Amino acid sequence: MKYYVYCHYRKGETKDTPFYVGKGSDKRLFIKSNRSEYWKRIVNKYGYNAEILYDNLSEEESFDLEIKTILKYKELGYCEANFSDGGDGVKVLKRWWGKKISESLKGMIRVKGKENKSYKNVISKETLIELYINQKKSTTEIAKDINITYATVCSRLKEYNIPLRNSGKDKIQIKCLNDGKVFSSLNETAQYYNLHKENIRKVIRGIYKHTGKKQFIQINN
What we know:
This protein has about 220 residues and is α+β, with helices and mostly antiparallel strands.
């Protein structure tokens, strides 16, 4: 059986602004069952289009590409109906981070919650700066190099205050019309002004006139 990675985007928009990315086979991209309530609310309000992004894949290839695609669009502020990092429910013979996690847990006394700081030992700030800033590797490449999940890489980048790069092919920027400042993503814009990124998105789409007394537009390079 062959698999594919697909996206859902609002009617009137393009596949470059998806609210959901998934993987599947046969007619999965058109099936509305087994979707989240948030997905259904978006579809009920705006309608949606479905499009295959990557086709003719093995199960493991679809797993990897789904994760990478969700990450790429989440860094741009999209995929808001994806509540996981992807790869859910896929039967993969060997996940490249499994051995590292298993070895790190051997002999450990399990500690719950924030008291468990052992995850910090797998990658330091200096290593992240070297790989992400100097060598310009992607978060997925770093995760595979270090043998950890890319979600951990993203968490460490945020913790160490290392800004995420815009990973999209078309560079999308957000401009604040009040002060002229330009940002590389919705997340960066929301963090700078302490605003909710969904409200900024609605201003850009013309649904709201402003948020936090600020107006924004999206520009492409």
